[in-house]
Specification:
By secondary structure, the protein is α/β, with parallel strands linked by helices. The protein is about 25% helix and about 20% strand. The longest helix has 20 residues.
Length: about 290
């Protein structure tokens, strides 16, 4: 469950500082609210239709996290002072947290030609590096290379980034697939609230179009490129399932939706004793 403290922390890490006179750091008119109940939201929408005597046109844009009661609202920023309205909103009954829908920035992989020679797994001093300054992965692989837990659960890592490469020879075998979903039939076959989420989830498009990634491909390679297969590189985990979630934007609102997808899959797994959902043990969002 996303608590108020967690919510505020999540918002803070991805946000850009407000710099007056420069490009805005949020989507104008958008407000992310964490409510105590749906009734509190209804009461808010009714009471906030006017602010300082001016119509706000406040409405629900979309639900971001149903179980956690987080919504994206939108108001007429051309007629209402956004900051004054936000300050007023935070004082209203039933609001646990409220903020603008900030824009973050993508992080880019270094363009150094030898960056991916993977000295970080095993550093023997190549490229004038310091021998032993690595993650001791060979020692770890003597214990395990991933796969299943001791109780037989398939380990899944959720990755929030710009997508993957579904046909990559070093990644294809380790992609997480929702096998209880029939692809492209327009139905929510497994009842998880997402239609046709076979390969993962694309927040912007509300489908499983997670292919043709860039930074995300590099991230998935480090987390779970198939090892000991005579192809390309190797990841930390040779045998792992990677759940691809694609916000396709730096909006915090969409990042919350991305986290909610992974949370929904893990909760469903717990509720059905592993018959549905996914055993998500970790999330990576280094693309933002």
């Amino acid at each position: 469950m996303i608590t108020r403290l967690t919510l505020l922390f999540l918002f803070a890490w991805a946000s850009l500082p407000v710099v007056h006179g420069q490009q805005l750091n949020h989507i104008q008119g958008d407000l992310i609210v964490h409510m105590s109940s749906e009734q509190a939201l209804s009461d808010l929408l009714e009471s906030a239709q006017r602010f300082q005597g001016v119509p706000t046109q406040l409405r629900v844009n979309r639900v971001l996290a149903p179980d956690s009661r987080i919504w994206l609202l939108h108001m007429d920023h051309t007629r209402i002072h956004e900051t004054d309205f936000l300050i007023w909103m935070r004082r209203q009954p039933g609001i646990l947290a409220a903020q603008f829908n900030h824009l973050g920035t993508y992080r880019k992989s270094p363009n150094d030609p030898n960056y991916f020679q993977q000295w970080h797994w095993k550093n023997t001093g190549q490229n004038n590096g310091k021998p032993g300054a690595d993650l001791d992965m060979e020692e770890a692989w003597e214990i395990t290379t991933g796969g299943l837990t001791a109780t037989g659960d398939t380990i899944v890592v959720a990755i929030v980034d710009d997508g993957t490469d579904l046909e990559h020879p070093d990644l294809a075998a380790n992609h997480w697939i929702n096998h209880l979903e029939i692809p492209d039939n327009g139905q929510d076959d497994d009842g998880n609230g997402y239609v046709d989420d076979y390969f993962g989830w694309n927040i912007n498009q509300d489908n499983d179009n997670v292919d043709n990634g860039g930074h995300g491909v590099n991230v998935e390679g480090m987390i779970g490129a198939v090892g000991n297969n005579g192809v390309g590189l190797t990841g930390v985990n040779w045998d792992i399932k990677m759940m691809t979630i694609r916000p396709s934007s730096t909006q915090e609102a969409l990042v919350i939706e991305a986290y909610t997808y992974a949370l929904t899959q893990r909760k469903l797994y717990n509720q059905t004793n592993g018959e549905k959902g996914a055993f998500v043990v970790a999330m990576n969002s280094s693309g933002y």
